[in-house]
Amino acid sequence: MAAFLGALKKLSICLILWLNTLPFLQGGSDYYEFKYPFIKRASSFWASSSSFSSSNTDEASYDYIIVGGGTAGCPLAATLSQNFSVLVLERGGVPFSNVNVSFLSNFHIALADTSPTSASQPFVSTDGVINARARVLGGGTCINAGFYTRANSGFIRRVGWDERLVNESYPWVEKQIIHQPKLAQWQGAFKDSLLDVGVSPYNGFTYDHIHGTKVGGTLFDRFGRRHTAAELLASANPKMLTVLVYATVQKVLFDQTGRRPMAMGVIFKDENGNQHQAFLTNNRRSEVILSCGAIGTPQMLMLSGIGPKAELNKLNISMVLRNEFVGKGMADNPMNSVFVPTNRPVEQSLIQTVGITKMGVYIESSSGFGQSQDSIRCHHGILSAEIGQLSTIPPKQRTPEAIQAFIKRKRDLPHEAFKGGFILEKIARPISTGHLNLVNTNIDDNPSVTFNYFHHPHDLQRCVNGIRMAAKVIQSKHFTNFTSSAKTL
Looking at the record's lineage, which domain of life comes first (predicted)? Predict the structure, then answer.
């Protein structure tokens, strides 16, 4: 009888868990519309926002308009809505109904899906490095590797933030979407290997960014389900917030009658291609806030008439404010990886353990994303779980045609070639910088970006040091069980 009751209890728990995930599997609309009633499609703009209006116009107006509902836009909207009316305009859809976003096992598929409505917009810099731009509510937290750590205290001081206020803000995020990972076997071996090669001390599980080896937080819960910045909107005041998805802002509108141009609203198009305008209230503190990412924000500024004179003239964009610094100083943390073939399949894991070295290099690892036929047919961009960034093709030769040829050839490789994991090294705070230029006036198209990876000799030297350390990690005795009788590529 006791055994029967125990089995019944387990069955009930499994049924509850299945029911909890059912909305995700069946589209998720009922789930998010119940929990986030303020999230609407852009085409519903007038009906959903008519409650907010200024005293001198019949058109909807807001204290704050946030362009980009990503990693920054969502928490910003949630906190501002406690005291102000807020409109968030996100060009992508919701993450809740997208199984490629929601589950760790589909991480690589999300990056490989380059269809026009996917959460991941393909992007290749002029340096030839494949990357992805988030195109979904929740931004980069929907397509990244899910690793969470607090900022380096030195960084906070350098940018001039209030360190006390920053530290008080972390728990608000951590309590809602961050989890302690269940350490995968591969990640455990990686942790021991880091300590073997001198990345010490071992700091255990911690959110703090400190030198040594640590296990950090993750956006994935114990069921392998991703929790994104979009869930932070649950803390918003629903009566003061409107979030429009599939709302692509085309430009910021300015009042130029005064001594200085002042943002007054935005023009955006909905999922049907129809244009709308949204305006700020007549409040001196009201603002249009651009949180479109490192690429989308300078692109939006220039399309709105703020940027270098030559850049605006090139595309006949009327100048609102000349600023030669827009689009300059573009930097990206270069990442290099070493694929480690294994003698057997290994469980899937993303970034859980990290080595924070004193030489300005991070060492990380992932495993197990190359074992299905679906995976082999994909290219996985910035965090490929197979053979890296088209490593046999020089960056300048990575044309769209070359990339397609690579994907086609990859299908012919033996299945065994994809078993294994990656050791990754990344440079912290690169000195090398580049620039962003507009290609056209279509906000849907990627601008041209050059990062000038390793242009500064110090960045190149750190890269060499990081690769050498990654090689030592692989040679550690703790990886022997995975790599014996397998060859390192």
Answer: Eukaryota
